[in-house]
Amino acid sequence: MKVLLSIKPEFIEKIITGEKKFEYRRRIFKKDVESVIIYASSPWKVVIGEFLIDDIIEKELNILWQETHMYSGIDKDFFCRYFDGVKLGYAIKIGKLCLYENPISIEKLGKKPPQSFFYL
After folding, report:
1. pTM to 2 decimal places
2. In the chain, where does DSSP find H-type helix?
3. Structural domains of the chain in order of their starting residue, each with its CATH number
């Protein structure tokens, strides 16, 4: 199964360069998901590619940061603000990345941009 995941363009750029190998989430998929279709949120507003999920790590926040911060693409303050109010966090380990030659408008897929993600 695949999901369409909204990611900010600043983080997509870090994923492309390899600086960011983990995508953090406060909540995670309930179904078995193998790959992520990347929706670049505003101002890009296009589907730009996809990646295979290497692993999904669920940990207490301080352990999650210790295990993933080297390839987080963010600083610890941002991490703490993002996860404020939760005890556990999720890190999706980004596997093989495939960028589309021509980004796709979300409207062409007959969908609206997801707040976080939706199943395809």
Report:
1. 0.94
2. 9-17, 61-68, 76-82
3. 2-119 (2.30.130.30)
Check: CB of residue 51 under 8 Å from CB of residue 95: yes
Rounded Cα distance between 21 and 94, Å, is 5
Quote the strand ranges of the chain, DSSP E: 2-7, 22-25, 35-40, 46-60, 88-105, 117-119
In angstroms and rounded to an integer, the radius of gyration of the C-alpha atoms of the chain is 14
CA distance 118 to 120: 7
For the record, the structure tokens of 89 come out as 């966090």
Does 43 sit behind a cis peptide bond, omega within 30 degrees of 0 on the bond before it?
A: yes
Tokens of 12: 């997509």
pLDDT score for 64: 98
**Per-residue pLDDT tens for 20-69?**
999 999 999 999 999 999 999 999 999 999 999 999 999 999 999 999 99
CA proximity to 40, closest of 28, 56, 57, 23: 23
